[in-house]
Amino acid sequence: MMKYHKVILKPKKEDSLLRFHPWIFSGAIQSIEGKPEEGDLVEVYGSTGRFLAVGHCQIGSIAVRALSFTPATIDAGFWKERITKAYDLRKCLRLTGNDDNNNTYRLIHGEGDNLPGLIVDMYAHTAVMQAHSVGMHAARHAIAEALVAVLGAELKNIYYKSDATLPYKADLGNEDGYLYGGEIEDISVENGLKFHVDWIKGQKTGFFVDQRENRALLEYYAEGRSVLNMFCYTGGFSFYAMRGKARLVHSVDSSAKAISLTNKNVSLNFPDDPRHTAYADDAFKFLERMGHNYDLIILDPPAFAKHRNVLRNALQGYRKLNAIAFEKIQPGGILFTFSCSQVVSREDFRLAVFSAAAQSGRSVRILHQLTQPADHPVNIYHPEGEYLKGLVLYVE
Ligand code: SAH
User: Fold this and answer.
1) Is the shortest distance between the CB of 280 and ligand 1 below 6 Å?
2) Which of 10, 235, 241, 257 is deepest in the core (most CB within 10 A)?
3) In this structure, how many other beta carbons lie within 10 angstroms of the beta carbon of residue 371?
4) Domains recognised in the chain with CATH numbers
């Protein structure tokens, strides 16, 4: 068994770890033996000397992220075992890179797969790996080797993309690049629809894999409707709306790069289809200026709140945004509205949308309450992992 630096907790601070919550806050720590550096492995003990966990230490309010609640050496065998478990779950969900109809999925969802700080998204035969902690960054080569061992022929490339997600103060320099393979095969398929993924320059790992099922639901409602896909990014909801026989689809995003990717993706699936137009514009400006033209609106903004202290502003933002949609959507219209902020609870979000509806005075009914798909599983001991919230509303 490897020996790691020891972290001793204050009396009565072990409860959350005994309930398998993987975060140890700095305020819970009594003392640290030795001088672990950020990203080093540490063993965590209770005040009475009881072993609690092994994890990566980090600087900040979360001081340790637990990898194991039983004594463990974090070596090649450990990564292989955890990745195998994650992969087995995706097989159970019938998600695999060898499915020509759907080869886009999340293979590793951080705490949801008992690998805090690590995200891996699969685009056909390419894995895009993202570290959110220095510990996962330090382990990236070992993780890449384990991915190759577990996925076998399904995996041809691993691209590491963590420049924007690692703690800025750790000052690690930009290590983004291929850890394996490197052949560019950038078309992925989701529910039979194709799209280019730009994992090198795009946002997140290149695509928002978490909206797959919600996009499929939108397709169901699209027939004959005039659709506004606000915050479209690479156009995910738009091509589902088109396949669902929408009358017209307008995609809007403030990023010109996102709009050019949307146009590329729409032509990949529906070449020369006159129903689609994309606009590079600010959401609030577009919504203020537009008429009462749409009867299906998607609002999928970026996380308005990344930290708890800006929660109130974020809720105001959701209220304002949804209020314009309620004011302008045609009678009989359907609104798909989302929040991906982890710190905004389901109740908070619903309350913000409720206030917006009340402000418009329209009759609004909830048709569906949406969340993230099963390849973004929520660890029951880490409820913070539930981040995506959506409502589908019928507006009279
Ligand atoms: N719905 C998308 C994901 C949206 S991510 C999908 O299914 O893939 C949020 C998007 O909002 C990003 O592409 C970002 O460029 C865009 N964005 C951020 N601020 C904006 C603003 N003020 N107006 C319009 N778009 C904005």
Assistant:
1) no
2) 241
3) 16
4) 5-68 (2.30.130.10), 76-190 (3.30.750.80), 208-395 (3.40.50.150)
